[in-house]
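INTERNAL AUDIT FORM
Audit reference: QA-55
Scope: verify that the stored structure record matches its stored sequence.
Auditor: D.O.
Record contents follow.
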Amino acid sequence: MGDQAEGERNGLLGGESRLEGSSEDYDVVQPKGCGASLLCDPRRWAHRYFVLIFMVFLSFGSYFCYDNPAALTETMKADMKLDTSQYMLFYSLYSWPNVFICFVGGFLLDSVFGNCWGTIIFSLIVTVGQVFFALGALVDSVILMYIGRFIFGIGGESLCVAQNAYAVNWFHGRALNMVFGLQLSFSRVGSTVNMNVMQKIYNSLLGRFTGHVNLGITLFIGGLFCVFSLICAFIMGFFDKRAKRILKADTTQAAPEVINLRDVKDFSVHLWILCVICVAYYVAIFPFISLGQIFFINKFGLSTDDASAVNSVVYIISAVASPVFGFCIDRLGMNVFWVGAGTVLTIGCHAAMAFTFINPFVPMVILGLSYSILASALWPMVALVVAKHQLGTAYGIMQAVQNLGLALIAIAAGKIVDTAGYLILEVFFLSCLFVALIAVVLLYLIDTARGGKLNATAWKRKRLAELQALEDEIKVAQ
């Protein structure tokens, strides 16, 4: 709790008084002219939200291209002559490098690159990976496509870690859940746009190109969104460096703390339970969507276009609902409760699609809402249980564990579909979700026994932080 309070007081733009109050208490460079305006002064909320525009687009291109295979499932399998297991390798090869690289990426952000250069480097890797992926399709080389997805994965999840670290540094406090919701929202906008335009782009090029050549050109066009996100990474780095220079954030602490790999053993049990929830929940979302188009065609008799539309509903709903739920959770608190509610709703959605023939649009809408609730409440909790200087490493560990699960489940899901069908696959997903629910209950019990900070109301959490900050000030004075 002490580390958390310290983080709130010493973050780049963490305290309200730092943004709106007098600068006499802080070592700052007074902006002049345009730099002192609402949009340009890093001490003001208006500037913070202006910078948020570029922050939320950091992973837009990555998420757009991540689900290129899902948007072109039948097309890609036909043009590249793939079965389901080979097709699912596009997802598992994205996840495998992040079992290790994602953790290393978080450590490098904390100790070597810093957020600015780390974000630019990871965004560049994502762009290079998409280029290789598209080039592989263009020259009819599945191996080159696999290499591209592997490179893409090296940068993709580490870029998300950097984006999360940016969010905590700039919005540590009352708006953090909303900001995480907005980041998720714009990421899902990228996935939604991908689901609805990639097949149309492919079809529009059929008069000029055919087969794998058409597929490669389509993927190159999709890669332009990665270039857009790379540009946002440069702009975000400029604003971050500028804010640190003006606020002299790097010199506000007498002895900045540096993350050490040995510190990992000191992470609280809360973080490891959050990792379990993360992996057990997300493996029932992304692998399902990657196979959803064929599932809706086979079970519900939908056309290819209708199946793609239904499959993208989760992303469409989450794009709208995530910032709304994030804003509400900022005001209400009780993050553990909301994570549990999201998990229960998701179990109901998968059960409905597995055992009934209800219009799949209905459970997919609810799935989008429940996914938004869980994501908006889950990821900000890391900042409540880990010291500020360890955030990159903590988020790296959490996403590394998530990607281990996604890599294994992507392979397993392809095998299950090829050998046992979609009903058994849904039963498998339900089993994973029940594991997540058990972990949520365990987190609630442990958190309650240790003071209930994670599930506290927003008012109580703020009060606890103020009391801890006061205690820290008294200790410093003594």
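Auditor finding: record pair retrieved intact. Residues 19 and 43 are 3 Å apart (CA to CA).
Action required: none
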